[in-house]
Amino acid sequence: MEIHGGRGAGGLGRVLVLAFCVAGIWSAYITQGVLQETVSTKRFGPDGKRFEYLSFLNLAQNVVCFIWSFIMIKLCSRSSAGAAPWWSYWSASITNTIGPAMGIEALKYISYPAQVLAKSSKMIPVMVMGTLVYGIKYTIPDYICTFLVAGGVSAFALSKTSSKTISRLAHPNAPLGYGLCFLNLAFDGFTNATQDSLTTRYPKTSAWDIMLGMNLWGTIYNVVYMFGWPNASGFKAVQFCREHPEAAWDILLFCLCGAAGQNFIFLTISRFGSLVNTTITTTRKFVSIVVSSLLSGNPLSLKQWGSVLMVFSGLSFQIFLKWRKLRMQKKTKDA
């Protein structure tokens, strides 16, 4: 996919579209992060109860994104002929259901900045599996990126968390929280590989087709998990939302932000390529940590800020290496 693509758009037009994409991705996902942290840590109503059923967020997100993608496909009036059939997403949706549930569940045990950092270290399991299972040889710059990210996450995890941050957590337990985040990354890896396989077998599959199929199966799995037996957690979540309408509104806004963010991601990838999207989403994660620290009562120590900068230095270096590789490939192609 070409980074400089853009159908008939002039220089100023492309800058405005890019600014629109950046503003959309940042506003949607930073707001979603604030809402996710609010729902997981806030005490609602005069009784001061916490919303303990965080897996319900995934079900709500699945339903909203399924409806959203269905509407977008109908509005685009595009034929689905040649796209991957809806039933083919069943296996990828299993890991796509379990992985995010673990990531959200981790917020009971670690702070939001810690969760964002842990989930930013996706390259670590990829490189470990690539080296041990497939015998892939990586370059020294690749190892430098991994060292910076792994070292930063480790230093953040080992540094002392403020008592104010700990008091906001439902069940403080750092090893369990980080363990859930890394399991989330492992499941995400399988999900991404399966989705890539589907788009290879069915080239006419669009982003909306994937969004529809994944969220259809995600809704089915989460409904069974949360409402499949008497006194299941889904019934308790619905009852909580009835008793605390403020929580229900926060959950709805959380879902709408996620669906809107998907739109901006698809627009960014289609106009500017996946590397530009990666750059925007990586900087968004850093801003999310800053927002969480300033607005949501998660003060970070100087050592923790150093860990954050270490992680994002590694991620920025990785993005730079990708940009350089693309430029070299372009020069070779033009020669």
TrEMBL record:
Keywords of this entry: Antiport, Endoplasmic reticulum, Membrane, Transmembrane, Transmembrane helix, Transport
GO molecular function terms listed in the Swiss-Prot or TrEMBL record: antiporter activity; UDP-galactose transmembrane transporter activity; UDP-glucose transmembrane transporter activity
Annotated localization: Endoplasmic reticulum membrane
Membrane topology: Multi-pass membrane protein
GO cellular component: endoplasmic reticulum membrane; Golgi membrane
Annotated transmembrane regions: 12-31, 51-71, 140-158, 207-227, 247-269
InterPro entries: SCL35B1-4/HUT1 (IPR013657)
Domain of life: Eukaryota
Chief site of localization: endoplasmic reticulum
Family: Belongs to the nucleotide-sugar transporter family. UDP-galactose:UMP antiporter (TC 2.A.7.11) subfamily.
Name of protein: UDP-galactose/UDP-glucose transporter 3-like
Organism annotation: Phoenix dactylifera
Gene responsible for this protein: LOC103709731
